[in-house]
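TODO from last week: model ABC transporter substrate-binding protein.
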Amino acid sequence: MKLKQRFGLALGGALLAMIGGTVAAQDLRIGLQEDPDVLDPHRARTYVGRIVFTSLCDKLVDIDQKLHFVPQLATSWSWSEDNKVLTFKLRTDAAFHDGSKFDAASAKANLERAMNLQDSMRKGELASVEKIDAPAADTLVLTLKRPDATLLAQLSDRAGMMLSPKTFEGDSANVGRKPVCSGPYKFVERVQNDRIVLEKFDQYYDAKDYAFKRLVFLPIPDTTVRLQNLRAGGLDILERLNPSDAPQVKDDKSVQFAPVAGLGFQEMFFNLNNGKRADNAFKDVRVRRALELSIDRDVINQVVGGGIFDAASQPFPPASPYHSDKFPVPKRDVAKARALLKEAGLNEVRGEFAFGNNTTTSAIAEMIQAMAAEAGFKLNLRPTEYAALLNEASAGNFEIILRGWSGRVDPDGNIYQFVTCKGALNDGRYCNAEVDKLLADARTVPDEAKRKAIYDQAQTILHNDAHNIYLYYQPWPFVLAKNVRGFAPYPDGMIRLKGVTLAQK
């Protein structure tokens, strides 16, 4: 298995080097850690998919580097006094890639699709919306069932991305095969697990600010191979450098290192009630606590993280005003872990640990396997291609999964969908009615201090239930070719190409 995998990666690297020698100067090549899932923003759920969407599909609003909301397809917005009506003024010069005009009616059609499509992943994000009106071509009005402090943040991500409504007729799966969006680049082709190609959309309202004729996104799971290809000239930008390579990359004058502290996290979560495989030893909260106590996050940071991982014990990173000192990171305690297993009537626990098959997560999984073994756990590792892993998680085909989340500007995006009983990303089917109530209440409270107090209450329950194990907060370490100019890393980890150029070599 390992030999086959290494051969495939080496071959991919060789092919990529060949591509690097033939692309035109106006092309930009971006190395991704995984292949995205479906290219339909209403149905998609991967981080790398969001990177592609950033160039493909404009949103109603965006964020700046300081996480403030800024205009994109919406030029301005305002709230009613009771915070239940949100009114957008829209651009009048935007178009979809099929030439049709973007206006309030098309925005309405997109939001209604995101809310009503059977397999939409955006339903929970837009659950507060009661109705949508388009009283004028440049005016979009959202009337809410209740105040929703999270809504603007949702509309700065996939819930606010705009597709041509002409593509909504017929099979919804066709939308993701050839997405027709409204961003600075339009879809050309996709070869699964090989490349996604976008081409500049000349009718884009800010086309003059985008320098590249084509974007080529290349999924290369092995971070070492990604870095080798960038150094050899086969890539211009890579996302998620292997953290263990960070010290040497910082000293490498032939490339540029552009890290930024992120908003997301890596977690281990358990199958508690999703199908037959939920019938396992980890249904006992004592076993889950024992597994967490077997893990030394600081060692993972030093060995795998290159010193750039911040240990986590909650969904909100230290930069967030919702981060709480009430939930410190637990120290490793093997003796206590063994005592908990004994209390549960167990001397040994066998289980399966699935994870996305890339260099960093593989190393983390192997370290956790070794640490857990000292406390009485025998974990069988199951590396899986990441998009396939998400499908298996949704279907309940797992016991424990290592999963990353890229993070959201609003705290709701880091917690609600993961732990509410019907949350779209709650693949383990953890369910606590009091948590649901608290998190629903938090969505309606705009006051930061009051909202934080509600999140603290919810987190107290979640910690008592040991529903998951947060490992570390997700940094975004980018590496750029030496001739890339104008690139700015953002805390959400997205690659924004406005103003980015390649200098002459």
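Done. The longest strand covers residues 129-136.
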